[in-house]
Amino acid sequence: MAITSSWRAYSDSKAMRASAIKRGTPRGIGERLIEFSLTGCGLLSVLTTLGILSVLVIETIPFFRQVSLAEFLGDSQWTPLFAEKHFGIWPLLVGTLMTMLVAICVALPLGLFAAIYLSEFAKPRTRQIVKPALEVLAGIPTIVYGYFALVVVTPMLQKIVPGLAGFNALSPGIVMGIMIVPMISSISEDALHAVPNGLREGAYALGAGRNATIFRVVLPAARGGISVAVLLAIARAIGETMIVAIAAGQQPRLTFDPRVPVETMTAYIVQVSMGDTPHGTLGYQSIFAVGAALFVVTFVINALGHRMARHAVSS
After folding, report:
1. What tens digit of pLDDT does each residue of 152-211 get?
2. How many structural domains compose the chain?
């Protein structure tokens, strides 16, 4: 009986809402406006992505009419602005991945331990103070990080690391890692905080200590959210521009030594976009090819992170 009356009430309210919209009442007009606004916001994001993709495709096609895909993926040199031109993307790609790996090696332990402290050890009052203070790092302009890496971190590292050049991949990678610590800590802390307390209580009931409960129960349960945080931080590090443009050296070379100058994909785009390269030349068109490669890399990482997030929610 109760179910029948509840269903009738739901049906009546639904019918009243439909009739209100049809009659053009203020409530119906307001709901229609909200619906159109939300739909427009969703379509705007999709259209923006399609617009960016179309610009990259249109501008990249003339480049690949003159440079073969085999040369783009097979050559080990990148000198499109020199007299002897080479268009191998690997020096830029390796430089980008090397600085990203340094950043992740710095940010992952710091961000994860900060998340564990905030979720499992900090008192509520301390958490309300420490978490916003930690997230202030994300609000510092990246150009400030770049000059900090160049004039502070690099001279300090030169006293410790032998053979470290004035421009290198190590210093901007470390500073970039400090910059993305809030991203990893914030998302990981939310993932740890979402783990049901029943898992912790069950571990305590079986005789596990606090540290064993955190590292053997809570962390494995939150691995989906932590993995998403790491992938988003990787995408952020790959797309970083000003830090590597200032402190990495802008010298494209295929090397795995972080002590020497390198150039990333974003730094090359900045270099060409400064206006010294004539519009319409092959060197100018190369920035769109590099941008397309960067788009593919970040798209794959974001798609992987989205899939892992869905898997974590379903499991």
Report:
1. 999 999 999 898 888 999 999 999 999 999 999 988 988 888 888 888 888 888 888 888
2. 2
Residues 258 and 292 both lie in one domain: yes
Looking at the domain assignment, is residue 82 inside a domain? no
State pLDDT tens for residues 279-304: 778 888 888 999 899 988 888 887 87
The reply to whether 138 and 240 lie within a common domain is yes
Residue with tokens 């010294």: 276
Whole-prediction pTM: 0.82
Residues 128 and 234 in one domain: yes
Structural domain containing residue 51: 2-66
In a domain, 80, yes or no: no
